[in-house]
Amino acid sequence: MKDNSNITQELLETIERYYNDSMSKEERIEFETKLQQDTTFKSQVEDIKLLLFGIESQSLKEKLNEFHGELPIQMETEDPSSKVRFLHFRKIAAAAIIIIASASFWFFSGSSNERLYNSYFSPDPGLPTTMSSSNNYDFFDAMVNYKQGDYQKAIDKWETLQQKEPKNDTVNYFLGVANLAENKTDEAIVFLKETASKQESVFNDDANYYLGLAYLKNDDKENAIKFLKLSTNENSKKLLEKLK
Amino acid sequence: MQKVHNTFTPTDQSTQFIEGLKRNDERILKSLYQNNYGKIEALVLKNNGTKDHAKDIYQEAFIAVWRNVKEEKFVPQNETALQGYLYTISKNKWMDYLRSKQYKKTVQVSKLVHFDPSDHGYETTDDDIFKEKRLEGIMSVFKTMGSPCKELLTTFYFEKKSLREIADELQIEENTARNKKYRCMEKLRELVLASKS
User: Fold this and answer.
1) Are residues B92 and B156 in the same domain?
2) What is d(CA B147, CA A242) in angstroms, rounded to the nearest whole number?
3) Are B15 and B85 found together in one domain?
């Protein structure tokens, strides 16, 4: 609130209608035109909107304490020790299964495509992580994990960002490469495709290359060739030669 | 009895859920809150936190989620997507907290090179920070506002009751309720302004 600029009852109620999305089409158009033309009006509207939002936020905050007081009780009485041990056993069992499965996969299905993939795949070196304090902190924070080889941690962080910006080419690209490094080929393909579909992206070339690699890993030679051809990357050309 | 044609597909149910959340529907808020707290508490307790920490972090995350949905910064496909989002935000907030406590003194942030992955990125601008500060100010002023006004504004703006209903409850004329609401808003604006200087 910059000053005491007078807000009439009528203006307040108009802004309420706008805020609640209950304006008629004509009224909305008129209102929005005025918003664009009149900066004083605009800042009045912004002020009131923030005020209404503050009221709602504080009310919610107080409501949450009420909800918290009414939480079902059985949750509080869980016996933590037995649960931990149980989970532990399950974790070990799951880990054992994964190890056995991946070992046997390695033994029995080391196809030529797989070998080719292994000799060509190395994760993107990543972006420089020196940064100013506020800009894209989350993105670069994950980049640090990525560069340290902690791909899963990087994936977790980037996925949060990706949910907010599902179309961002940079995040999708690195999510793709990180997933590929973690051997999650199917996830990798989804993310890489997003960036590979954006011609204007600086990562487009590399996205196509990694996408080709991902398909190669999946033993899908046809798609591998298709995407490798879309990349002008040196390695792409070499790899294409070998695939022919 | 005539059968009413049912037009609700599962997608409509999700939409109803999201719309309910935006409208501050108490039942929906309550079930979302209560159904997801357990997971967050377990996470925080396992990672050096207490129940109080869990509650604070979870409530902060819950408000952030509610807000992002309201402002359509996050558009969930369904309730499950929203639950995942709530969990991730809580988790991140907790990690941030741990980091701030433990590494405050050791982390050096360099300002040498600055690379922006994209200009339509998700960075926070100074404007956002400014707005955030003002919002916090409004919230704390409203928190301590005298009860008749606070109650009236909560019922109207948060619970979304109509002036008619409010007037009936208070046994006053609708127009009186309307004027009261306006005066309370004026009062709140005044208090917010005063709190700044």
Assistant:
1) no
2) 77
3) yes
The rounded distance, in Å, linking the Cα atoms of A161 and A131 is: 17
Contact A51 B189 (CB under 8 A): yes
Are B142 and A52 within 8 A, CB to CB? no
What is the distance in angstroms between the Cα of A64 and the nearest Cα belonging to chain B? 7
Total tally of structural domains belonging to chain B: 2
Which residues of chain B from 50 to 89 reach within 8 Å of chain A, CB to CB? 55, 59, 62-63, 66-68, 73-74, 85, 88-89
Å from A14 to nearest chain B CA? 12
Owning domain of residue B78? 10-103
CATH code, domain with B89: 1.10.1740.10
| CA pair distance A121, A180, nearest whole angstrom | 9
Contacting residues of B for A156, CB less than 8 Å apart: 88
Does B177 fall in a domain?
A: yes
In a domain, B115, yes or no: no
pLDDT tens for chain A, 244 residues: list them: 445 567 898 999 999 998 888 889 999 999 999 999 999 899 899 999 999 999 999 999 999 999 999 887 654 444 444 445 555 666 777 777 777 777 666 565 556 777 778 777 888 877 766 544 445 777 878 888 888 788 888 898 888 888 888 888 888 888 998 988 888 888 888 888 888 888 888 888 888 888 888 888 888 888 888 888 888 878 888 888 888 7
Q: Residue A86: how many CB atoms within 10 A of its CB?
A: 10
CATH number at residue B140: 1.10.10.10
Which pTM was predicted? 0.55
